[in-house]
Amino acid sequence: MRKIIDDKRLLVKSCILYYRENLGQQEICDILGVSRPTVSRLLKMGRDRGIVKIEVVDPFAPEYGDLERRLEARFGLQEVIVVEDRPVAVATEHISSLMGTTALSYLDRVLKDGDDVGVTLGLTLHNIAHAEYTVDKAVHCRFIPVLGGVGETYLELHANSLAAEFAKRFRADYVPFYAPAVFSDANVLRGFKREPSIARIFSLFEHLDAVVMSIGVPQGDYSTVIKMKYIDETILQDFSARGAVGDIGLQYFDIHGRTERFTSHNEHVAGMTLADLRNVPRRIGVVGGSGKVEAVIGAVRGGYINTLITDVSCATGLLAYEETPENDD
To answer: Are the C-beta atoms of 158 and 149 separated by less than 8 Å?
Structure first.
């Protein structure tokens, strides 16, 4: 056996037949008169000694593949997916159709039977839920709104409606959460959460396998929450002046992911807290555009997302982001 393994001509011949001429290992066995385990060892030796060099060619590299790896390394993210910039119809979209399709494809890849998947609110998730993508196989998971959502306007953007839409796409189940998204009195909310039926919903948040979320910013051009009458524009302006860079599920945070300055509002939100969000294994943020860079920075620093699906504008903005006395306050 040692003589066969040490035969350099046989080693090179095996590699040529397998990698260049695309013959199977059994065919090589028949040609060379050696056993299949011997062929397997010869091919491994060819790789180990550098006789065979295998290159993975990324069709998006170096443009997007490199961007993804650099973002993962810099921000410690589990996975980053970057797609090309495409225009959006601002009145009806927050992300491009390509991002919506990519996000659905990602969910189709990672979700598995038995998973509980949290869903936030807004146009971004609405665009994803209605993206052009076919889920070939049903996923027997369960979609759960991670905050309340009842009202008379923009019902299709509420977390309840979106959880139902995602469940339809994946032929899965969903759990409704019928409650106002924001309570005027935090004490009333605390009492509400003690109701058995509501307490059961909140207990589900402790065992989520994934959450798919958008990341809002406290500016009127982006803010669906103003249109949905969840928050007043003057309050958003005040939050911005106090350093708010973004929100997830109507809960605001600053560039460092800190929430203390916004507790007076956040404690009125009937939903999963940002602190509890950190415990979810797969925290998927879908966001596009250079205007969302600081919101993503804050979400990453707060530990609220560990997976990012974004476009080139946001990705390059994240890599170009530099600390200054102003944004490090």
So the answer is: yes
